[in-house]
Amino acid sequence: MKKILVGVVALGSMTVAGVAMAGLPAATGVNGSLHDMTKVVTNADSMGRVCVFCHTPHNAQSNLGATSNAPLWNHDAGTAVYTPYQWVTPLNQQDAAGNTFQPQTGDEALQGPSRLCMTCHDGTIAVDQHGKAREQVGTTLMGAIGGGEGARADLGGDLTKTHPIGFDYVAIRTHRNAAAVVGDATGTEIVDPEQKFATAVDTTGTVGGTYNVVTRAGNKKIKDVLFQGNIMTCASCHEVHNKENAVQDNYSPNSLGLDTAKAPNYFLYAKETDSLICLSCHIK
Description:
Helix content: 10-25%
Order of helices and strands: HHHHHHEEH
Radius of gyration: 21 Å
Distance between the termini: 62 Å
């Protein structure tokens, strides 16, 4: 009987895993990616572990706050004072009822997974710091990672130079639609969250005065990556565990001297070619 139960549990686990990974190409994941600290930091972990820099099954961090949804987090919280991006156009600030569509405080900007991202990306805590049991202090800050990748990813606490996060995507789309901003058929410049990420754009057959015609043939919808179904976060563009969500095209010419088959993905849900990642949410 025990053997039967074990077999059923194992089969059930494989089924769940299959559903969870459905649609992802082979050879994706954290191992070997820019989030694999064992590849980018010398002697990052004495046991050669990969997931441990963010997660642990025991003795997880509890200093990120009850609302941070930290998944068994194993990394210290960042210590920067955060200044959020602020829109400058009146349309993006308040509606007639006084509803605000942009973060007013640094903490408000870091909703959902964004707070977890900044435990490394604000540049105040070493990326190779991790753990309670067998704790390893870590010495490598984000900006010190080789190849320039770390420097680009070292956001600091000044988020005014970074794509805004922590705002209500659904509300701002509705707000701009009500303000009759010229755009698609509904009068908005923000894509319906029911739409999928962009996979191609027609740049040859469009008529003057119209917007780009975008193909959306992927598996992921915009609403799927909004925190609580409506809040824009870091994870709305980046899926940190899978480096080949969208296989990037080669740079041409390869000005960075990359000796790889394709350009780095940075865990994006859409290609950077033709600005498909941008056109996934913006009608331009």
